[in-house]
Amino acid sequence: MITVPIAEGMLYRLGEIRIEGAEALSPDEVRARLGWQEGDVADGDRIAKWLFEDLKSIYSKMGFIQYASEPIPTFKSNPRNAKEGIVELVVSIEEGKRFTLRSLTFIGEALSEEELSELFLIRVGDFFNQQLFEDSIKRLNDSERFAPLDKDKDTDFRTDDEEGTVGIVIKLQKESVTTRLVGKRC
C-alpha cells in the first residue's frame, strides 16, 4: 500500500469581479454569465469555461470573431477566516471589430437562390454568427444532397480586418449513392 500525502492549500472564495473593455455586453451582463456571487468558492475550471467558451460563443454569435479575454487574479487573505482566501478578478475583454458576412461562395456544386435561402441561415450583409454558420452546415449535411461537409476542412474563411468583413467559401460535392451507403455503414 502506498500513501501519498496531499496538501490541499488554502480555499479561495470569489471576491469582486471587475470587467474592463466590454462594450457590446455591459459588465453586469458579462458577470451574470458566470452565475456566481461574491463569497462562492472560486473554481478555476469554471472561470476558464465562462471566459474562453461561454463568452466566446456569445460574442461570436454577435459577429465578434476576434474576441479575447484575460483574467488577472489578485489573491488576498480573508480577514474573517484565516483558513480561506479571497480571489478578486479583473477581466480584460477585447471584443475586436464586429464582422459582417461579405460573401458566400460555393465551389463544386451551385445552389439556387431558393436552395440557399432554405439551407443557409445567414445572409450576405448580416453580422457573422458562428452558431448560425454551424447550423447551416448541419442543414446542408442533413439535406443529403451533397457529400458530408466538415465545417473546418471544407470551408475557407477570408477576413478583411480593415473592413470588418468575412467571406466564406464552401466546397460542395454531389452526394453519390456509394458515398451515402459507405457513410451510413460506418
Largest sheet report:
3 strands, mixed
- Count of runs of 4 or more consecutive helical residues: 5
Total number of strands:
6
What shape does the CA trace take? elongated
What is the subunit organization of this protein?
Answer: single chain
Mean pLDDT: 88
Strand content: 25-35%
If you compute it from the alpha carbons, what radius of gyration comes out, rounded to the nearest whole angstrom? 23 Å
Low-confidence stretches: none
Please give the share of residues in helix: 25-40%
Terminus-to-terminus distance: 45 Å
Supply the helix-strand structural class. Answer: alpha/beta
Which strand order spans the largest sheet, edge to edge or round the barrel? 1-3-2
Order of H and E elements: EHHEEEHHEEH
Tell me what you see in this structure.
By secondary structure, the protein is α/β, with parallel strands linked by helices. 28% of the residues lie in helices and 28% in strands. The strands form two sheets. Strands 1-3-2 form a three-stranded mixed sheet. A three-stranded mixed sheet has the order 4-6-5, with no helix packed on it. Strand 5 (155-160) and strand 6 (165-171) form a beta hairpin. The longest helix has 18 residues, at 44-61. The chain is elongated. The mean pLDDT is 88.
